[in-house]
Write a structure and sequence with these properties.
Elements (H helix, E strand, L loop, with lengths): L1 E5 L4 H12 L3 E6 L7 H10 L4 E4 L5 H10 L2 E6 L6 H6 L1 H22 L3 E7 L22 H19 L4 E7 L1 E3 L18 H9 L6 E4 L11 E2 L1 E3 H16 L7 E6 L5 E2 H12 L5 E4 L8 E2 L4 H7 L7 H14 L7
Parallel strand pairs: 1-2, 1-4, 2-3, 4-5, 5-6, 6-11, 7-10, 8-13, 9-14
Antiparallel strand pairs: 9-12
Helix pairs in contact: 1-2, 1-8, 3-5, 5-6, 7-9, 9-11
The chain binds nicotinamide-adenine-dinucleotide and UDP-4-deoxy-4-formamido-beta-L-arabinopyranose (WQD).
Length: about 350
């Protein structure tokens, strides 16, 4: 009775390992370490006092997945493994279709071959594209505007088709908004390699002196202060949503075997609000300049959270102060990420 967590060495996956181990589950992680370090898993064991199993493998290796699913007698899969950089997906689309779409297909084939039929999938609010109304409900039309988002939507569609083909399958599709923060211990957190694409890691690298200033991408949006508004969610709230989704899957049967749920807080904050909150939490100044808009960005994006409350009995608990405080705690304790 073990849960396979693909991509479990990564940012969200490592936090998910903590939550599932603390809930009493056995966990095996499959990760090829393309964007993570195995040290994160050692930290997970330190936090929880539990042993987890790690298999360094690629999700596109169907034989390896079949061997692992059988070896650990897995009953369900939480599927985080994938590539996630929007800009890179534009310049290297084949890598994204291969890893995210082909990889998930091989994983499902391996599950079918070994009789494992439950999976929770990391999707993204990016599948909605430019919002036609706010807050975003799950039945908002989809229309991703980059290859990364299209890989997420393709996997969602593949899962929906497979669920419809046979009620033995059970899938939870979770659309994340903007995960930030770190475990309260400061032992695990986000460890981006190279120049961060996302706002929160960039802010932290300015606050700790690694970068001179933050470029704010546009201050002329139709928002309360002109900068982009997003639904930032604490990563620990996010992974607690996965535990609730796993529990909800156990209660499903028949044709009611696939659900799609937003994981956000329902509240949006602007770039400038994020900077000010981070300055307060860290007691550091974050110098910034106003730069041109970033291509593909939308003005505002935040979740309707009703379906998550109804389907999963879950809502986010941690506020913006906790998100900023926990991020800064992780960075201060690990100034070079897992490299130290
Ligand atoms: P991450 O890069 O930290 O974690 C992904 C993990 O998957 C890494 O450990 C990486 O080494 C591993 N991996 C990648 N390709 C693999 C492969 N072919 N085989 C085995 N392992 C592989 O990213 P994250 O932020 O933790 O994101 C986890 C998931 O959540 C991803 O699927 C991502 O698309 C999705 N998501 C993330 C965000 C976000 O803002 N962080 C938002 C929405 C959705
Ligand atoms: C947030 C806000 C930027 C950096 C991305 C992906 C999405 C999902 C989450 C995976 C925006 C502004 C940012 C900077 C800035 N990932 N910004 N200066 O774009 O909402 O979503 O991550 O699924 O798919 O697209 O998040 O953190 O990049 O940006 O002003 O240096 O911060 O313009 O308004 P985004 P983000």
């Amino acid at each position: 009775m073990t849960i396979l967590i693909t991509g479990g060495a990564g940012y969200i996956g490592s936090h998910c390992c903590v939550t599932f181990l603390q809930a009493g589950h056995d966990v095996v992680v499959v990760d090829n370490l393309i964007n993570s370090r195995a040290q994160s898993l050692k930290r997970v064991e330190d936090i929880t006092g539990c042993k987890l199993f790690f298999e360094e493998a690629d999700i596109r290796d169907q034989d390896a997945l079949e061997r692992i699913l059988a070896k650990y007698d897995c009953t369900a899969v939480i599927h985080f493994a994938g590539l996630k950089a929007v800009g890179e997906s534009v310049s290297q689309p084949l890598d994204y279709y291969d890893c995210n779409v082909v990889g998930t297909h091989r994983l499902l084939k391996a599950m079918e071959a070994t009789g494992v039929h439950q999976l929770i999938f990391s999707s993204s609010a990016t599948v909605y594209g430019d919002p036609q109304y706010l807050p975003l409900t799950e039945n908002h039309p989809t229309g991703p505007v980059n290859p990364y988002g299209r890989t997420k939507l393709m996997v969602e569609e593949m899962l929906t088709d497979v669920a419809a083909s046979d009620p033995k399958w059970r899938f939870g599709i979770l659309r994340y908004f903007n995960p930030v923060g770190a475990h309260a211990s400061g032992a695990i957190g986000e460890n981006p390699l190279g120049v961060p694409n996302n706002l929160m890691p960039f802010i932290t690298q300015v606050a700790d002196g690694r970068r001179d200033k933050l470029s704010v991408f546009g201050d002329d949006y139709d928002t309360r202060d002109g900068t982009g508004v997003r639904d930032y969610i604490h990563v620990v709230d996010l992974v607690e949503g996965h535990l609730k989704a796993y529990e909800a899957l156990q209660a499903r049967s028949g044709n009611d075997n696939c659900f799609t749920v937003n994981l956000g807080t329902g509240t949006g904050y602007s770039v400038l609000e994020m900077v000010r909150a981070f300055e307060r939490a860290s007691n550091k100044t974050v110098p910034l300049v106003i730069a041109p808009r970033r291509e593909g960005d939308v003005a505002e994006c935040y979740a309707d959270t009703k379906k998550a409350e109804e389907t999963l009995d879950w809502r986010a608990q941690r506020d913006l102060t906790a998100m900023c405080h926990d991020t800064w705690n992780w960075v201060c304790k690990n100034p070079r990420g897992y490299d130290d």
